[in-house]
């Protein structure tokens, strides 16, 4: 069988033009699918960036909340009630809102304002410059160094501007693991200063961040919060909730899903047609092999090997090209969110198996129907 597979390989690569076309069709379909799904994964991952950046184990919120950026205010008694639940190590308020920044040049720019608990500063960002304790200074804010910070102009410690007609002074430059997807700069300050500077309805607590004493206490905390008429979600549950919202309630999932389906169809059609053409043009050789005693089983093995080799090689090329383009895009465009992960690589590999199976099926049907007599007679 080793000699048969060696013969199959030589037969596959003998015509370099057709072999290149076959690899190109498969590589293009894999590239397209990995590229599209990487955008989807990146957008969904960054859509819950605030949840990841703050990192609270449990989030208490209004049951109507679908998206972390559109929170609904809760009354102060919810914070007190959560603090009294057995198993809660501590609970602190979090404010999330959007303010309008007036830059020194007169330009207005929206900015996300996050107010962390005044006492503990739980959920604060890491610091690139400045001291976190300076957040207690008058009108003090911390700007997050990400792809959107240039929209605030040249930001450095000591920079000043207006936020909703309130004076703001940057006392530190912070960093977070993930940037947002809405193209809006992020500012951190204390909870009390945030609710002072941003117009709010009667209730100002966006979320209650909970640190349980033990992981086993989370289920009890969730039940007690549910009894209050509110919702308590773990960090992973909240991220899934946000991802589900963007995937099914915004049209994003449908659009990217259709693009992925189109890439799959392109891959199957292009590779199947190219491989079928390859089989037809080598039909005489297959017939000759059959005439000298090669069994149908060995011919099937040859075609499976050829289809599998071409598909896996195209898979490697497609993933390599896509990864290279994404890496270059991230270097040139810091706001690009595409991510290649095991999930979309796994889906792409399944596509490769489908391409190999469909191509093999077409080739096997054609080869098994030929008769050596017909070949030599022609």
Task: Explain this structure.
The protein has 378 residues and is an alpha+beta fold. It has two domains: 2-46 and 251-377, no CATH class; 75-229, no CATH class. Helices cover 53% and strands 17% of the residues. The chain contains twelve helices and ten strands. It has a six-stranded mixed beta barrel with strand order 2-3-8-5-7-6. Strand 6 and strand 7 (166-175) form a beta hairpin. Helix 8 (252-281) runs parallel beside helix 11 (342-369). The longest helix is centred in the last third of the chain and has 37 residues, at 296-332. The radius of gyration is 29 Å and the shape is elongated. The two termini are 29 Å apart.
Concise description?
The protein has 378 residues and is an alpha+beta fold. The protein has helices at residues 2-13, 16-47, 49-54, 76-83, 191-197, 218-227, 235-248, 252-281, 283-291, 296-332, 342-369, 372-377; strands at 58-61, 88-102, 108-116, 126-129, 140-144, 160-163, 166-175, 186-190, 207-212, 231-234. It has 2 domains: 2-46 and 251-377, no CATH class; 75-229, no CATH class.
Largest sheet at a glance?
Answer: 6 strands, mixed, barrel
Number of domains: 2
Q: What is the helix/strand order? A: HHHEHEEEEEEEHEHEHHHHHH
Spans of 5+ residues with little confidence (pLDDT < 50)?
none
Structural class designation: alpha+beta
In which order are the strands of the major sheet placed? Answer: 2-3-8-5-7-6
**What is the count of helical runs?**
12
Distance between the termini: 29 Å
What's the alpha carbon Rg, rounded to whole Å? 29 Å
**pLDDT averaged over residues:** 86
Number of strands: 10
Strand share of the residues? 15-25%
The percentage helix is 40-55%
Shape: elongated
